[in-house]
Design goal:
3 strands, three-stranded antiparallel β-sheet, alpha+beta
Length: 139
Protein backbone atom coordinates (compact mmCIF):
# COMPACT_ATOMS: atom_id res chain seq x y z
CA UNK A 1 0.00 0.00 0.00
CA UNK A 2 1.25 3.46 -0.89
CA UNK A 3 1.28 6.13 1.84
CA UNK A 4 0.83 9.82 1.15
CA UNK A 5 3.33 11.94 3.10
CA UNK A 6 2.16 15.30 1.70
CA UNK A 7 1.67 17.84 4.42
CA UNK A 8 -1.48 19.91 4.52
CA UNK A 9 -1.62 23.41 6.06
CA UNK A 10 1.18 25.64 7.32
CA UNK A 11 4.24 24.69 9.24
CA UNK A 12 5.14 26.38 12.49
CA UNK A 13 8.15 28.09 10.92
CA UNK A 14 5.96 29.70 8.24
CA UNK A 15 3.60 31.03 10.90
CA UNK A 16 6.49 32.47 12.93
CA UNK A 17 7.98 34.19 9.87
CA UNK A 18 4.58 35.70 9.03
CA UNK A 19 4.21 36.87 12.62
CA UNK A 20 7.66 38.48 12.53
CA UNK A 21 6.98 40.30 9.25
CA UNK A 22 3.59 41.50 10.53
CA UNK A 23 5.13 42.76 13.77
CA UNK A 24 7.82 44.70 11.93
CA UNK A 25 5.19 46.25 9.64
CA UNK A 26 3.03 47.28 12.60
CA UNK A 27 6.01 48.82 14.39
CA UNK A 28 6.86 50.80 11.25
CA UNK A 29 3.26 52.03 11.05
CA UNK A 30 3.34 53.04 14.73
CA UNK A 31 6.56 54.98 14.15
CA UNK A 32 5.04 56.76 11.16
CA UNK A 33 1.94 57.58 13.21
CA UNK A 34 4.10 59.02 16.00
CA UNK A 35 6.03 61.20 13.54
CA UNK A 36 2.75 62.39 12.01
CA UNK A 37 1.48 63.33 15.46
CA UNK A 38 4.67 65.29 16.16
CA UNK A 39 4.30 67.27 12.94
CA UNK A 40 0.58 67.85 13.54
CA UNK A 41 1.27 69.19 17.04
CA UNK A 42 4.01 71.47 15.76
CA UNK A 43 1.69 72.68 13.00
CA UNK A 44 -0.94 73.48 15.62
CA UNK A 45 1.61 75.44 17.64
CA UNK A 46 2.64 77.31 14.49
CA UNK A 47 -0.98 78.25 13.81
CA UNK A 48 -1.54 79.31 17.43
CA UNK A 49 1.60 81.47 17.32
CA UNK A 50 0.28 83.27 14.24
CA UNK A 51 -2.95 83.94 16.11
CA UNK A 52 -1.02 85.27 19.15
CA UNK A 53 1.07 87.52 16.92
CA UNK A 54 -1.98 88.86 15.09
CA UNK A 55 -3.71 89.49 18.42
CA UNK A 56 -0.75 91.61 19.56
CA UNK A 57 -0.81 93.56 16.29
CA UNK A 58 -4.55 94.18 16.63
CA UNK A 59 -4.15 95.33 20.25
CA UNK A 60 -1.59 97.88 19.09
CA UNK A 61 -3.95 98.89 16.27
CA UNK A 62 -6.74 99.58 18.76
CA UNK A 63 -4.41 102.04 20.57
CA UNK A 64 -2.69 103.47 17.49
CA UNK A 65 -3.87 107.05 17.98
CA UNK A 66 -2.97 107.12 21.67
CA UNK A 67 0.43 105.59 20.94
CA UNK A 68 1.24 108.10 18.21
CA UNK A 69 0.21 111.23 20.10
CA UNK A 70 1.76 110.09 23.39
CA UNK A 71 -1.40 109.50 25.46
CA UNK A 72 -0.41 105.83 25.71
CA UNK A 73 3.20 105.19 26.66
CA UNK A 74 5.11 102.29 25.20
CA UNK A 75 6.25 100.87 28.51
CA UNK A 76 6.56 97.43 30.04
CA UNK A 77 3.00 97.63 31.36
CA UNK A 78 1.65 98.21 27.86
CA UNK A 79 3.90 95.54 26.35
CA UNK A 80 2.72 93.08 29.00
CA UNK A 81 -0.86 93.56 27.79
CA UNK A 82 0.27 92.30 24.38
CA UNK A 83 1.67 89.02 25.69
CA UNK A 84 -0.09 85.79 24.77
CA UNK A 85 -2.29 84.27 27.47
CA UNK A 86 -0.50 80.95 27.01
CA UNK A 87 2.95 81.04 28.59
CA UNK A 88 4.24 78.42 26.14
CA UNK A 89 4.64 81.23 23.60
CA UNK A 90 7.15 84.08 23.87
CA UNK A 91 6.61 87.31 21.98
CA UNK A 92 9.26 89.89 21.08
CA UNK A 93 9.08 93.11 19.12
CA UNK A 94 11.89 94.05 16.76
CA UNK A 95 11.82 97.78 16.05
CA UNK A 96 9.53 98.63 18.97
CA UNK A 97 11.29 99.73 22.13
CA UNK A 98 10.16 100.94 25.53
CA UNK A 99 9.60 104.69 25.32
CA UNK A 100 9.53 104.90 21.53
CA UNK A 101 6.63 103.94 19.27
CA UNK A 102 7.48 102.98 15.71
CA UNK A 103 4.84 102.52 13.01
CA UNK A 104 6.81 99.67 11.42
CA UNK A 105 8.04 96.76 13.51
CA UNK A 106 8.20 92.99 13.52
CA UNK A 107 6.34 90.77 15.96
CA UNK A 108 8.16 87.49 16.57
CA UNK A 109 6.43 84.64 18.38
CA UNK A 110 8.48 81.63 19.47
CA UNK A 111 7.60 78.37 21.17
CA UNK A 112 9.51 75.36 22.45
CA UNK A 113 8.83 71.94 20.99
CA UNK A 114 11.58 69.56 22.08
CA UNK A 115 10.07 66.69 20.11
CA UNK A 116 11.03 68.31 16.83
CA UNK A 117 14.62 67.49 15.95
CA UNK A 118 14.72 68.95 12.44
CA UNK A 119 17.00 71.80 13.51
CA UNK A 120 14.56 74.51 12.41
CA UNK A 121 13.56 77.42 14.62
CA UNK A 122 10.09 77.28 16.10
CA UNK A 123 9.12 80.87 15.44
CA UNK A 124 6.85 83.07 13.39
CA UNK A 125 7.66 86.63 12.31
CA UNK A 126 4.87 89.03 11.41
CA UNK A 127 5.48 92.51 10.02
CA UNK A 128 3.29 95.28 11.42
CA UNK A 129 2.97 98.54 9.50
CA UNK A 130 0.64 101.28 10.69
CA UNK A 131 -0.20 104.61 9.06
CA UNK A 132 0.96 107.85 10.61
CA UNK A 133 -2.16 109.60 11.85
CA UNK A 134 -2.76 113.29 12.39
CA UNK A 135 -2.47 114.67 15.90
CA UNK A 136 -5.71 114.43 17.84
CA UNK A 137 -7.00 111.75 15.49
CA UNK A 138 -9.22 110.24 18.13
CA UNK A 139 -10.43 113.38 19.82
Amino acid sequence: MKTNNAQLGFSLIEVLITLLVSTIALLALAGAQLKTLQFATNSFMYTASIIHGNNAIERVWSKICELQDGRQAVDTTFLDTLKPANSAYTITYNGLAVGAFNTDFTVEVTWLDERMTDGLDNKVSLNAAYPTLEAGCNG
